[in-house]
Design a protein that fits this description.
Layout (H helix, E strand, L loop, with lengths): L1 H25 L8 E5 L5 H14 L4 E5 L8 H8 L4 E5 L5 H4 L2 H20 L5 E5 L1 H6 L5 H9 L6 E5 L5 H6 L2 E4 L20
Parallel strand pairs: 1-5, 1-6, 2-3, 2-4, 4-5
Length: 202
Amino acid sequence: MSDDINEEHRKKMVKLKEEQRAKVKEKKKAERGLLMVHTGDGKGKSTAAYGTLLRALGWGHDVAVLQYVKGNWKTGEKEFFKRFPELVRLEVMGEGFTWETQDRERDIEAARKAWEVSKEMLNCGDYDLVVLDELNIVLRNDYLDVEEVKEGLLARHPRTTVIVTGRNAKQEIIDVADLVTSMEMVRHPFENGIKAARGIDF
């Protein structure tokens, strides 16, 4: 009986492998870097972006990160990147969450400065991957013009893949992205009175 089950399983896997190879053969290699969006109300948007960045580093790719919102907030990724400055270009341009600054004009000015640096990263051709962390938040708050940002993202150097993170991604950005992942919150410890934890949440 066990031999029959194993043989049936083997046949299914052989067929599945053939089907998968046929699907892959139909596809073509991307002619340029992708535009990827991580959004949604669930946890893990930036975390997924940094996971991709780690994978890129594993292949010896050149990577850069610009953080729009986190400002002076001490995060695990920032502490990690400080140890390996030769591996990752990190620009922390935000001044903190909007409820910290409480100054819309200041937030807009910080966003404009960050976008100018972002455009340089996207256009220079030095990077295989650029992570624009929390850019969606800046756009949600209308600190930058979404059409200007969309055009800037699309005009990036052909070498460069870009990941844009943050909840409430604008539809204009979603419409032109190659990959969109929406993180769904099913349960979050904060809702049960548990504070964010170092090394897990930041």
